[in-house]
């Protein structure tokens, strides 16, 4: 694994690893015993560790309210993710942090019996079908004439820790009259129970303890006296905070990148979110759009997206093609699915391969535009993903639109959302828009227009008139390479004849920036004015051309008269203020 990570880092790529909160209840490796020594696990009323079952088998769960949990979590990260002798990860994917506890169903009195078959047998390792240039001998096919690293087998489950530990003496955590939370409650069988869908039936949430099913029992008391009944929804966010701190300890000057499954209000200040274990259905494809808008624009968690093509069940070439196009225009974009489902890497089908090449190219060219929108949301809450009614609040027809949205302030994304359909009804408010691909002017009349002949490799995109879009003139395979590409500025003129926009630039990783650029674009009366601050400078930072949409051109410029599109070659460094006039090179 260290070889793989080193290979990626040498090519300016990044490695993301999954971490679950539950810690294997076993003697080796020593993470469990260090947790016992620090007294950081959830305990039963008799002083024993509250045990559940997750992927490793029997597990213990960190108590994020315990006094030593930050020390413990930071130390585990420093050991396992050590740059010197561990896995030098770049980002974190935290999962199962509701917390999930399966298949030890409520009341989970015998986790050892429930853990039979866990951890599951790992899938067979597939030998590479051909030599892999650039990789070490350990990654080459069997029979390759080279010396591979000797593999050492470690006997992990040679013993099971004892049930009780002398230092885990649970002191009274809720004495009479000192309860935290309302007194006199039944924490396991509440009279008025929420409908936990993990319960076998909704009616079991109260009488059958269903609110504790597949998670930690709600009568567990934290080290600080709070009840799991009151804190359950905070567990994932508490893990997010601890993991953010642990990542900062590893790399104090670098922004932590963390994606979590479980969230609560305020989590977006530290982490992003993927939309959980969805399934490969058209309903979940549509749900991904609605959920993304909710998390980004309402819950203020802007780095959000779904498992593209679906996680559970088997996808299809058509669904995966549509979803891959859609995913390219979500803040967080990945393909990930269940081991039991068919493989769905985007190169598996010719169509999904074509979709990936087309829309990843566009996504990478737009990354600076998206980054600017993300920076704005971080600064003042302006959503990176907007429901249409956010930008057109006076148009009541936009209120119910949940299958089209604006990425940033300018780009209207309107995907085909029905199986076997080659058309989509796109609602265009009373405004001026431009086809993203052809730059043709489209006048919105406050009604839906039917966009036809949309193959699996197509997705309707529109530029909103009046909002200037900076994008890279060409794409790249990594963000490092992308930063060497010049900019093109798109100026879609609004119905009032003006347009404005912005571009924020920094080094992309540092918490404390040495220099930044916050650039404004203003267009009126045939002149584009570029102004602002220009602290961020690189040798490659320049604008090669400006394309004006919806204007009449003059001599000295390239013009597509039928569409009133004018392109002015500029080739100016983006390090100072200047102006560009329509028709002047």
Descriptors:
585 residues, alpha+beta, 5-stranded parallel β-sheet, 20% strand
Provide an overview of this structure.
By secondary structure, the chain is α+β, with helices and mostly antiparallel strands. The protein is built from 13 helices and 27 strands. The strands form seven sheets. The protein has a six-stranded antiparallel beta sheet with strand order 11-12-13-18-15-16. Strands 1-5-6-7-8 form a five-stranded parallel beta sheet, with helices on one face. Helix 3 packs across helix 7. The longest helix has 17 residues, at 282-298. The chain is globular.
Topology:
Layout (H helix, E strand, L loop, with lengths): L1 H9 L5 E4 L3 E2 L6 H8 L12 E4 L2 E4 L8 H12 L10 E4 L16 H4 L89 H4 L20 H4 L3 H16 L7 E3 L11 E3 L7 H17 L5 E2 L1 E2 L8 H11 L6 E2 L14 H16 L1 H14 L4 E3 H4 L13 E3 L3 E3 L10 E5 L3 E4 L5 E3 L3 E5 L9 E4 L4 E4 L6 H4 L4 E6 L6 E7 L11 E8 L2 E8 L7 E8 L8 E3 L4 E9 L4 E4 L4
Parallel strand pairs: 1-5, 5-6, 6-7, 7-8, 9-10, 20-24
Antiparallel strand pairs: 2-4, 3-4, 11-12, 12-13, 13-18, 14-17, 15-16, 15-18, 19-20, 21-22, 22-23, 23-27, 24-26, 25-26
